[in-house]
Design goal:
17% of the residues lie in helices and 34% in strands. The protein is an alpha+beta fold. The protein folds into 2 domains: 69 residues, Orthogonal Bundle (3-methyladenine DNA Glycosylase II, Chain A, domain 3), CATH 1.10.15; 130 residues, no CATH class. It holds the Pfam family FeS.
Length: 226
């Protein structure tokens, strides 16, 4: 599955009908999902000229991977390596949401201190250093840090009743979630991680300040990774 995911555009736009490129890659490998046939044409971006070579590679690779899957040799157990799509960097682990939550938790610090909002509001912001505008639903407000679930952007933009509060450029100070794949780090470690909900599928870095079971909190978030 990772071999296919690596070749997808990595936009996590949802236009294929799946929440992420990872989910689309998994369905594409199986060939069906909930009784419907899954074909490469579901991704509109693969029809663009700039993705022509990657599409051709997917079309060439899929029959082999599907055959391995049918033989019981194409599972995800052997896929130890975790890499970002946009930068190709290796990560220590991928970060998934806490149980029952829609995305990893982000602690956001808006630079505009005159703004007022409350739990349940949806904020429109661009994380410092990230070119993608995010939409986050406020879960908690504590001493200037706003904890949000990322719930967009794409599927919210067409909702007429949707009125987000624009808070501008903001600093993402922390992530909380569950280590889905890769090793569970210890407190104090500087790590590279890949948030499952990241629309660019870009590797982030930070420092582990809490680790309990597979649940971790990462602070000092940086998009610059060496």
């Amino acid at each position: 599955m990772k071999e296919i995911e690596r070749l997808l555009p990595g936009y996590n736009c949802g236009e294929c009908g799946f929440k992420s490129c990872r989910e689309f890659a998994r369905a594409l490998l199986k060939g069906t999902d909930r009784g419907r046939e899954i074909e490469i044409e579901l991704c509109p971006h693969l029809g663009l000229e700039k993705h022509r070579e990657k599409r051709a590679e997917i079309e060439e690779t899929l029959p082999r991977l599907r055959r391995l899957l049918a033989e019981g040799r194409g599972g995800e157990e052997g896929e130890a390596e975790i890499r970002g799509v946009i930068d190709g960097l290796a990560a220590d682990f991928s970060l998934a949401p806490l149980p029952g939550e829609p995305s990893c938790r982000e602690d956001v610090h808006p630079f505009d201190r005159d703004l007022e909002f409350e739990v349940g509001d949806v904020l429109r912001y661009r994380p410092l250093g990230c070119p993608v505008t995010h939409f986050g639903k406020v879960v908690k407000i504590d001493h200037g840090l706003v904890t949000v679930h990322v719930v967009g952007p794409r599927h919210l933009l067409g909702d007429r009743d949707f009125a987000p509060l624009d808070v501008g450029v903001s600093l993402v100070a922390a992530f909380e979630g569950v280590v889905l794949r890769g090793r569970v780090p210890g407190v104090g470690e500087t790590v590279r991680f890949l948030p499952d909900h990241c629309m660019m599928q870009k590797v982030h870095s930070g420092v582990i300040v809490h680790s309990e079971g597979r649940m971790v909190r990462i602070e000092g978030i940086d998009l610059k990774v060496w």
